[in-house]
Amino acid sequence: MSVIDILTRVDAICKKYDKYDIDKQRGDSNVSGDDAFARLFSVVESDIESALEKAETAAGEKNRAAAVALNAEIRRTKARLMEEVPKLEKLALKKVKGLSREELAVRNDLVLALPERIQAIPDGSTTATKQKGSWSASASRSEIRIETSSGIKAFRQEYEMRKMKQDQGLDVIAEGLDTLKNMAHDMNEEMDRQVPLMDEIDTKVDRATADLKNTNVRLKETVTQQDLAEENQGIKDILQSQHCIEEMNCPSEVFCCLFRLTRAGGSSRSGGQPACATDSGAKHSLDESHHSTVPRV
After folding, report:
1. pLDDT tens-digit profile of 30-42?
2. How far, in Å, CA of 73 to CA of 62, rounded?
């Protein structure tokens, strides 16, 4: 066994049991208290190590169902880790107090190497990258450097900017939908309040319609009674005139009575003077006409 293999194994064992070192955890928390990149990167590193351990367990598992379950869990972990890569890319570009430009460049290189490390974790699929030996996968990848051109960086920045704009647009759409939802809720409440009022209006309209029908019926009865009263008055006048004719002895008095009744009917219809004011003149004219027509003896 060479010295390089021994150092690699020692490094892997130290990383495996670093989480049990309380003093180191306290020191790391104090150093990276304000460094979000360091915290997130350490979590991703621990998840990668855990996924590698599960991959080793799944490779040596004799129970096929247990191996399939472990591989499915590894694939879910890989998908979750791939979602963390864009966040690390954003955090790697931020300046942190106490870090030099070289350290920021190293961070960028570490982030660029993460997708390859995540995809290299065996998950039981045919597309997984096969590793030779159980220790080579857990070796440190901090020395890997990937040369990137300015075009790739510009494309990545443009992608991030468009993604941010899309997120902002989705946030605006979500706010608009919330506003519409609140408006619909308010409209439903207002409709619920207006329903009793509409029912009351319908009741009042029905009541007014019934009252109007009753009023029309009463008015019709009143008009009918008035017409009957006028007809009865006319009949009374005719009967009185007949009675007057029967009691009279001379034709002049008959003509006078008929003339009086005729004038009375005309004055009552036209609103003129009563017939009593001209009874004497009418009687005198009728007497003259009667005497002129009676032959002399």
Report:
1. 444 567 788 888 8
2. 17
